[in-house]
Amino acid sequence: MKFGGTSVADLACVQRSAKRVVREVHNGKNIVVVVSAMAGGTNHLISKVVETAPVYDAREYDAVVSSGENITAGLMALTLQGMGVPARSWQGWQVPIGTTATHASARITHIETDNILHKFDEGMRVAVVAGFQGISPEYRITTLGRGGSDTTAVALAAALSAEQCQIFTDVDGIYTTDPRICDRAKKLDQIAYEEMLELASMGARVLQTRSIEFAMRNAVRLRVLSSFVDELDSQGTLVCDEEEIMESKVVAGVACSRDEAKLTLISVADRPGIAAMVFSSLSEANVNIDMIVQNIAEKGRTDMTFSCPNDQVGAAEQALIDIRSNGEVRYDELVVDNSVAKVSVVGIGMRSHTGVAAKMFSVLSKEGINIKVITTSEIKISVLIDRKYMELAVQALHDAFELEE
Ligand code: ASP
Ligand code: MG
Q1: Phi and psi of 138, rounded to 5°?
Q2: Ligand 1 atom with the shortest distance to the CA of 146
């Protein structure tokens, strides 16, 4: 059972969450509880680091920002003890949870479960583990990247062959789209790992993307629930293998991300090495590229378009200006459009159904929305449109694909 920041935001929340744990203990289960820092706690710690050292040693950053979880782990153990349940806390290094040495975004490499299992044998009922942290081969404290407690929970569930991994948050599950954008958004009872991956990496920020990949690889049954809603009122959303999904719709959800930018290089040479050069320079500038489209060449020249987060446009532009001025890549013009948004429809049903693209595009055209870029994967169709139409597009698509029903 993993409790996110809002579920341990203060002592009353810790109490409420602990009660959920106790109920399961009374059902005869041994539980591993993973906790995040109190809501806002990690942001606060990060700002302290940046204030102290604008350019910082990532090892010390991890030493500081991992500490929020230590507090909630201890408080949760104390609360459970106060409710009469044998419980103790573990920091990541005590488990131990071994990770790579890539500080601030370390990956879990191995988990030793013997310590925890031994304590369960001795009669302990709840092991409270601080999320988000581990220990590197150099015996330094590491963190797993923002949202990393989800991955701690899934990794522990896999290592312990847990029955299920429950992620408690402040929403009662995964929705067909963002309820703030479309009031007809509906909670899903089930969603396939792959659909969840597509939705998570596109701005539905309920689960850390890496935790879903981990769950999929290790077949961990993942349930997203609200710690504020009684379990009799909502079972949340089960993230599981597509084979388990009872009745799947062609489209499971509509995702969107508001702050995108589109950059086009007009008339680059159509020969080997140009794309490599363009995208190497962007990667060196740490620009996160999303969609890439290259037009069919005419007379040996072509246009190349890509999208990136809006706040990285400056870095992208500079990189592209540099490769032109040092003669590496020639192009006529660089066109930047930083008022676009991305809207995507996602569903495993697309593998076997035709007509999803046609439907999506005609819905947008009926609303008078122009499509600027289109990309697809096996289970997703994404378009870039003018940002001011994003809400309209999401609502129209949600209606057209009957996601409310
Ligand atoms: N506290 C960390 C964060 O805010 C990890 C987590 O909550 O998952 O990113
Ligand atoms: Mg989170």
Answers
A1: -90, 10
A2: 9
39: CA distance to ligand 2 center in Å?
10
Q: Give the E-state strand segments of 270-315 in sequence order.
A: 292-294, 301-309
Please give the structure tokens belonging to residue 93.
């290094």
Name the packing angle between helices 193-200 and 209-217 (round to 10°): 160
* CB-based contact 37:64 (threshold 8 Å): no
Residue 41, pLDDT > 90, answer yes
The minimum-distance atom of ligand 1 relative to the CA of 208 is 8
CA distance 312 to 309: 6
Protein residue closest via CA to atom 4 of ligand 1: 42
pLDDT digits over 122-135, tens only? 999 999 999 999 99
* DSSP label at residue 8: G
Report the separation in Å between the CA atom of 40 and the middle of ligand 1, taken as the mean of its atom positions.
Answer: 9
What predicted TM-score, i.e. pTM, was given to this entire model? Answer: 0.89
Look at residue 203 and tell me whether its pLDDT is greater than 80. no
Biggest CA–CA distance in the chain, Å, is 78
Helix (H) or strand (E) holding 27: none
Which residues, at least 6 apart from 352, have a Cβ–Cβ distance to it below 8 Å?
none
Tens digit of each residue's pLDDT (9 = 90 or more) over 375-399? 999 999 999 999 999 999 999 999 9
Q: Kindly give the number of the ligand 1 atom that is closest to the alpha carbon of 43.
A: 4
Binding pocket residue ranges, ligand 1, CB within 6 Å: 4-5, 36-37, 42, 68, 131-132, 146-150
Q: What distance in angstroms lies between residue 150's CA and the mean position of ligand 2's atoms?
A: 7
CA distances to 81, 330, 335, 342, 392 from 321, rounded to whole Å, are 61, 10, 12, 25, 35
Query: For 54-103, what is each residue's pLDDT tens digit?
Result: 999 999 999 999 999 999 999 999 999 999 999 999 999 999 999 999 99
Pocket test for ligand 1, best of 97, 132, 141, 150 (most atoms within 8 A of CB): 132
C-beta of residue 170 within 8 angstroms of C-beta of residue 6: yes
pLDDT at 378: 93
